Fold this protein.
Amino acid sequence: MQKEKLRLDKYLWSIRLFKTRSMASEACEKGKVKYKGENAKASKNISIDDEFEVKTTHKKWVIRVKELLYNRVQYSEAINFYIDITTAEEIERIKFEAAAFHTGKRLSKVGRPTKKNKRDLDNFMEG
């Protein structure tokens, strides 16, 4: 038994492009989701082979609906319900940003020296 209607915001949430359904609705309201170049409403009923441009905080997605997904599932299953047709330029931009993000920074979990470490270092340099 197949359900007939599926809202766009629920679909974007269920395929894990957004953490919450309200975030998916908000993205639609703010014009970050487009269907055929036009802003798509959260209440839009979607169907198989629809294509959407979706701007999230990290990436500008271009997806094609492969199957309708009514409930949120784990990521490894969710990726089977859409086809990512994002442009090669966007993927390269993301890779470049990711590479540039970690340069010149302290390693995570390694903080500044403690007062004791600094005293020990000062004593070592003096003597």
Residues 29 and 41 are 7 Å apart (CA to CA). The longest helix spans residues 88-101. Residues 8-126 form a domain with the Structural Genomics Hypothetical 15.5 Kd Protein In mrcA-pckA Intergenic Region; Chain A fold (CATH 3.10.290.10). The chain has one domain: 8-126.
